[in-house]
Each structure stands twice: as C-alpha cells, then as structure tokens.
C-alpha cells in the first residue's frame, strides 16, 4: 500500500480523472489502473480497487444520464446479457503482469487512434436488425471478459464501439458506457472478492475523491458538454494512461 502522502496525491489526481471520465460516461478505470501500478500497489489489488472506484463514479453517471433520458435500453441490453457472465469469469482469473499491461495498452491505443485520427463518429455499415443484435452479443461477451480480466468496467471499449458501429448517438453511447461499467464492475468485483482477499478500507481517500469528481462530471456530461468535447476529454484521459503504462512495458 502507498504511504499517506502518495495516497493523498493519488486522491487529488483521481478526482480530476473521475470528473473527466464521468462526463463521457466512463469510470476512469484505465487511468486508475495505470496510476496504481506506478504507485507501488500490489498487482493483485489493482483490479479490485479500480473496479470499486469505477462503481462509485458510474453510480452518479448512470443516474444523471438516465435522469436526462439519454439511456437507451435497446442499445445496452444485448451487451449486458453476455458481458456480465463473462466479466465474472474474467474477474476470477489472475493474468501475469506482462499480459495484463499488454492487453490494457493495446486496447487504449486503438481507442486513441479512432478518436484523434478519424473524424467520423460512425461507419457506414448497412446491418440488419439481427446482425446488430449478434454483433452486440459477441462484442458484449468479449468486452465483458476483457473488463473482468484487466479490472476495469469495459465502458472505455464500449463507448467508442457504439459510435464506430453507429448504434447510437454520443449521449447514448456515454449513457450506455456508464451503465455498462456500473453493472460489469459489480460483477467483476463480486468475482474478485470471492477469489481474492484485499482490504478496500485502506483506500478510502480515493473513494471519496472519485465520488466527488464523478458527481460533478456526470452532471456536466449529461447536460451541457458538446459531443466533440466529450471525445477530446476521453482521448486526453486515455493518452495520460498510455504514457504511464509505457513505463510498465519497457
């Protein structure tokens, strides 16, 4: 566990991350994971802490996006049907550190490339109803498993996926991301608590920080933030995580 000064510094940074992440329907798990890793937290504890923080942030996000009627259950339900059981399965595993950081880095790189190098928010896929359903079910299973293994909620993959495929608007994607992370974080957290023993009370400053940041960011993202600004915040947050993760890969 980091010393108290490091923990308080992390809390201040996590407040900013949760604010930015909540505004785009995310929990910030990718950044939490990277920061915890470079701060000396044990690899076994990182996924459990990140999932807990994700759960706190997206509780506010889910409420705000549902309250402002941005949530589309037609979009999110197929993903949840397959992602939740796979998130539990992934959460019960413990990958070697090299594989853990490799999966996280590769996934974040793909998302950053899409945001900053492709202006279109969707692709012209002329998919029929059953094709969209099948794609959502398959993607849900894959994203849920990766989310459970890496220890993040999975929305960081889902939000751009919805935009790229053209399943919904930016607001709907953000709302879907928040709900997806919330439910899969619960599932992954249950699996982690069942298979691994870590005291979360030692990290209460981080939980308080992300609760405050999450509430403020969710209110902003659900009401006044422009879609393109949301994407830039998402991309910037991910770049920060990538810079930190490079240290673990070299």
Automatic annotation (TrEMBL):
GO cellular component, one term: plasma membrane
Keyword Transmembrane helix: yes
UniProt subcellular location: Cell membrane; Membrane
InterPro entries reported for this sequence: TM_pro_TauE-like, TSUP/Inactive_protease-like
Membrane topology (UniProt): Multi-pass membrane protein
Keyword Ion transport among UniProt keywords: no
Highest taxon of source: Bacteria
Name recorded for this polypeptide: Probable membrane transporter protein
Organism classification: Bacteria, Pseudomonadati, Verrucomicrobiota, Verrucomicrobiia, Verrucomicrobiales
């Amino acid at each position: 566990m980091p010393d108290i000064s490091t923990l308080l510094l992390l809390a201040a940074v996590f407040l900013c991350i949760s604010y930015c992440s909540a505004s785009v329907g995310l929990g910030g798990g990718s950044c939490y994971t990277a920061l915890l890793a470079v701060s000396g937290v044990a690899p076994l504890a990182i996924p459990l802490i990140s999932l807990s923080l994700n759960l706190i942030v997206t509780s506010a996000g889910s409420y705000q996006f549902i309250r402002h009627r941005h949530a589309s259950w037609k979009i999110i339900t197929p993903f949840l049907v397959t992602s939740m059981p796979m998130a539990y399965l992934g959460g019960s595993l413990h990958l070697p550190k090299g594989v853990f950081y490799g999966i996280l880095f590769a996934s974040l790189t793909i998302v950053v490339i899409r945001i900053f190098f492709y202006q279109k928010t969707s692709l012209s896929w002329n998919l029929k109803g059953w094709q969209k359903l099948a794609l959502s079910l398959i993607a849900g299973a894959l994203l849920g498993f990766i989310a459970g293994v890496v220890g993040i909620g999975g929305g960081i993959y889902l939000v751009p996926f919805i935009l790229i495929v053209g399943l919904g608007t930016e607001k709907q994607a953000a709302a879907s991301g928040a709900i997806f992370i919330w439910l899969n974080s619960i599932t992954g957290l249950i699996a982690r608590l069942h298979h691994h023993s870590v005291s979360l009370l030692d990290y209460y400053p981080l939980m308080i920080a992300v609760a405050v940041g999450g509430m403020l960011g969710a209110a902003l993202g659900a009401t006044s933030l422009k879609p393109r600004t949301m994407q830039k915040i998402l991309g910037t947050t991910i770049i920060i995580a990538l810079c930190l993760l490079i240290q673990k890969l070299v």
